[in-house]
Amino acid sequence: MIYKYDGIGEKCPVPLVQLRLLLKKMHPGDKCIITLNDLGSINDIPKLLNKQGYQYSEQNIGDGNVQISIKAGKACGTKST
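User: That's the sequence. What structure does it adopt?
Assistant: Structure tokens below.
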């Protein structure tokens, strides 16, 4: 399944909270695409993804907007200890 979240115009911590909810729904093989323009979220979300072991890629899509594509693997839905 592909989950999408458009966080353009939303300020931290809203995009981070929304992403956490989506990550809980994801299963191995699922993908999540989020679009952001809040600098706090653009910095914090990759930190969260790295900490929890998700594979992701970032792409600057112009006008200060960033798209992050997240692939769920075996770490999906679990918290790192």
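The CA atoms of residues 20 and 29 lie 17 Å apart.
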